[in-house]
Amino acid sequence: MKYYLIAGEASGDLHASHLIGAIKEEDAEARFRCFGGDMMEAVGAELVQHYRDLAYMGIFPVLMHLRTILKGMKQCQEDILKWQPDVVILVDYPGFNLKIARFLKQHSSIPVYYYISPKIWAWKEWRIKDIKRDIDAMFSILPFEVQFYEKHHYPIYYVGNPTVDEVSQFKIQNSKFNEQDSGKPIIALLPGSRKQEVRDNLRRMIEAAAPYAEDYQLVIAAAPGLDDDFYRECIKRVNGKWLNGKCSVVRDQTYQLLQHSTAALVTSGTATLETALFRVPQVVCYYIKWGKLASLVRRLILKVPYISLVNLIAGGEVVPELVAEQMNVENVRRHLAAILPGGSAREAQLQGYDRIAAILGEPGAPGKAAKKMIELLRKNVITS
């Protein structure tokens, strides 16, 4: 069968590449075409356009590049209709993918599957009507999504979480980590991926962790799109103290970093779940300007009580979340002290991580998704 996949960022590229590998094991004659990235291409998908050519976030960047985005969307639509795949598989990236799904429902009979649901349970719940209308099957990677969709009378398939697979596979490799040369234990700093996000969070993270720099090595996980000079400027001065040599940056080694860390300061996102699966106690930090106003807007807009996947999966607070005005140096430092060895909150977090691992289940998400997708496609062929 012919499979067309669309992913719009690095994490989607990773998850989609593993799904492609799993489909190949179930369908020896599978052919793949994609809007995606290097990892999807590396496992055999014919890459039509790279996601980085359309990866604009925020109101102003999107408006400035709207013509490019619309041109890319039209190219994708036309390419799908020309290639006539047996299924289109959308991977997260809702702003783009839901529009593709709407187009396909209006102009074709190609089934549309969604792998990794848009986070409509957090906000934009109104998008459920688009999903019910345009998506033939939803494959969820978060167990609490099942109840959300059932509430809206839309059945979905929970297949497990691919991050469990990725972390489990990495642990088997037992990779070395060069930054351990000092012999000191490590406090990991994961300040996000976007420039403004990193600029807002990292300075506060470093300043909070600075008193521990004599006994711990502070190591920052760099984002792919940000160069080393940017991070050096962030490190350069904290409260007038030079931290060069006590705070370093690693690139393309986030899992190695987490595997060898004692504690971590992490912005919200998949990184919080990855940190939990590596059993590294963490403080979730997300600074937002105009903090009190941002907190009010958050309470009005967000439909969930937490921002971290760790707490959302657990259904309660396992890790502290310092958001908006709560994300300040004093608060971060106090919570960091509590999760270091001997700290009052460390053991409770580790026990919480055990509960999360039990909820997520064993590895195998891409394989389960691939099996169910092919089962539904073959069933559709027989009944049509």
Attribute tags:
single chain; 384 residues; alpha/beta; Rossmann fold; seven-stranded parallel sheet; six-stranded parallel sheet; 17 helices; 15 strands; 49% helix
Quaternary structure classification:
single chain
Q: Give the biggest sheet.
A: 7 strands, parallel
Helix content: 40-55%
CATH class call of the largest domain = Alpha Beta
Question: Which second-level CATH architecture of the largest domain applies?
Answer: 3-Layer(aba) Sandwich
Distance between the termini: 16 Å
Total count of helical runs of at least 4 residues: 17
Which residues form runs of ≥5 with pLDDT under 50? 293-298
Fraction of residues in β-strands:
15-25%
CATH topology of the largest domain: Rossmann fold
Compute the number of structural domains: 2
Radius of gyration of CA atoms, rounded to a whole number = 22 Å
Arrangement of strands in the largest sheet: 3-2-1-4-5-6-7
Mean pLDDT: 88
Shape: globular
Protein structure class: alpha/beta
CATH superfamily of the largest domain: Glycogen Phosphorylase B
The count of DSSP E runs of length 2 or more, i.e. the number of strands, is: 15
Helix and strand arrangement:
Blueprint: E1 2-7, H1 10-26, E2 31-36, H2 38-42, E3 46-50, H3 59-64, H4 66-83, E4 87-91, H5 94-107, E5 112-115, H6 128-134, E6 137-140, H7 144-151, E7 157-158, H8 162-173, E8 186-190, H9 195-209, E9 217-221, H10 228-236, E10 237-238, E11 241-242, E12 247-250, H11 254-259, E13 261-266, H12 270-277, E14 282-286, H13 291-301, H14 309-314, E15 321-323, H15 329-339, H16 346-360, H17 365-383
Helix pairs in contact: 1-17, 4-5, 5-6, 9-15
